[in-house]
Design brief:
By secondary structure, the protein is of the alpha/beta class. 30% of the residues lie in helices and 15% in strands.
Length: 201
């Protein structure tokens, strides 16, 4: 199976959300991490009611971060232009000029074994995020053996098998009404020992 399935899945997800481009990755947490790296974020925040990996990613990247008491519905911003939209499924729902991070984990509306996507605004962003997710190499060019690797990257790309499953399930996901998720679907993370001393604003 070729990576053509990944490219086609990216195009169809971008079209559904009304985004200029979409970059497929192996999970939503890595989507968020790459978006934060790409945008050179130094500060971030997230609601106290969210998934564990969000503040853990801030910690991993050594960001200046804090919790908020925001009572979110479907998505929330972690920086001025990076959005955790892991549970968000809405036709033409893309927020202009942002990096919206999606999830296709098994509980999500488009339920795959694993996977995520970064909706992004420009071709330059798309190309840079593809390199970041493919160990610093251009995935649609010649073998990496013959490429000049000039920047760091991460082994976060989506496999063709997952992308093909996404393509197969996408028509049904588009036709089926989505449920709304919000802050009440998650525990207060400040009750967990790891986060008990985190700043809350």
């Amino acid at each position: 199976m070729s990576f053509g399935a990944v490219t086609e899945f990216e195009k169809q997800i971008a079209d559904f959300y009304g985004a200029p481009y979409a970059v497929a990755v192996d999970c939503a947490t890595h989507a968020l991490e790459l978006a934060l790296i790409h945008t050179r974020a130094s500060k971030a925040s997230c609601p106290v009611h969210t998934y564990l990996s969000i503040p853990m990613t801030f910690m991993k990247l050594n960001l200046d971060w804090e919790f908020t008491t925001h009572r979110w519905i479907n998505y929330y911003s972690v920086t001025s232009n990076v959005i955790d939209a892991a549970v968000f499924w809405e036709k033409d729902g893309y927020v202009k000029d942002t990096f919206m991070c999606l999830s296709f984990q098994f509980k999500k509306h488009l339920s795959l074994s694993r996977g995520g996507m970064i909706l992004c605004p420009t071709l330059d962003d798309y190309n840079a995020l593809k390199k970041l997710s493919h160990d610093g190499r251009s995935p649609n060019a010649e073998s990496w053996h013959h490429q000049d690797i000039d920047s760091i990257g991460y082994h976060y790309y989506m496999t063709p098998e997952v992308a093909q499953a996404g393509l197969d399930k996408l028509p049904n996901a588009i036709a089926r009404p989505a449920i709304s998720w919000d802050w009440l679907d998650y525990p207060n993370l400040t009750t967990k020992t790891l986060f008990k001393d985190a700043k809350v604003v």
